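Notebook p. 47: complex prediction with zinc ion.
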Amino acid sequence: MEFETCRMCGGDGRIGNALGGSSATCPSCHGSGRRADAAYGFHDVTKTKPSHHRAAVAAPAGPRTPVTSEGVQLAQEVTGSAVLAADAKTRLIAEIVNHESTHGRCTKTFIKKVRKQARAG
Ligand SMILES: [Zn+2]
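Predicted complex, C-alpha cells below:
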C-alpha cells in the first residue's frame, strides 16, 4: 500500500523553524512523513456538533398565561392576592386566559369580577 507524503513536512517527518533553524516533529504526520487520513481534512468539531441552541423550547399547546396587558395585570393581582388560595389563583388565572381567548381581551366586567375575588376578605 502506498502512502502519500505528508504535505506539511514533505515526507521527512520534521519541520524546520524558519526563524531559528531548529526542527520539530511534524504535527501533521507526527514524524512518519506519511499523510495521515485525519490530516487530510481537519474536522471542525465545533461546526459539526448538533446545535443545542436550535433546540427550541417546547411550545405549550395553548397559552397558559395572559397575553393582553389587562390580563397580565389582572393575573399579577390574582397572584399577589392575600385572600386567594393557591388553587383559586390557578383557577382564576386559567379563567383570565380562557376569557382572553374567547373575547380577545379582558372586558371591564370580567376584570371587576376577578378583582372582587382577589381583593375580597
Ligand atoms: Zn509531516
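Notes: The two ends are 90 Å apart (CA to CA). Residues 1 and 55 are 45 Å apart (CA to CA).
Next step: compare against the earlier run before touching the bench.
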